[in-house]
Amino acid sequence: MNNEIRVRFAPSPTGYLHVGSLRTALYNYLYARKTGGKFILRIEDTDRSRYVEGAVENLIETLQAVGLEYDEGPDKDGNFGHYFQSKRTNIYKKYFRELLEKDAAYYCFCTEDDLKKMREEQIAKKMDVRYDGRCRNLSKEQVQENLAQGKPFVIRAKIPDEGEVVFFDIVRERISIKWETVDDQVLIKSDGYPTYHLANVVDDHLMGITHVIRGEEWLSSVPKHLFLYQALGWKPPKMCHLPLLLNPDKSKLSKRQGDVAVEDFLKKGYLPEALLNFIALLGWHAKGDDELYSLDKLENEFSLKRINKAGSVFDVEKLNWMNGHYLRNLELGYIAIKAKSFFVEAGLDISDNEKYLKIVDVARNRISTLSEITEAAKPFYTISTYSDEDRQIIENENSQKLFSFWLENLKALDSITEENINQLLKQSTDKLGIKGKDLYFPLRLALFGSVHGQELPVIFDILGKEETIKRLSKMLDLK
RNA sequence: GUCCCGUUCGUCUAGUGGUCUUAGGACUCAGGAUUUUCAUUCCUGCAACAGGGGUUCGACUCCCCUAGGGGACGCCA
Question: Fewest CB atoms less than 10 Å from the CB: which of A72, A194, A309, A446?
Answer without folding.
Answer: A309
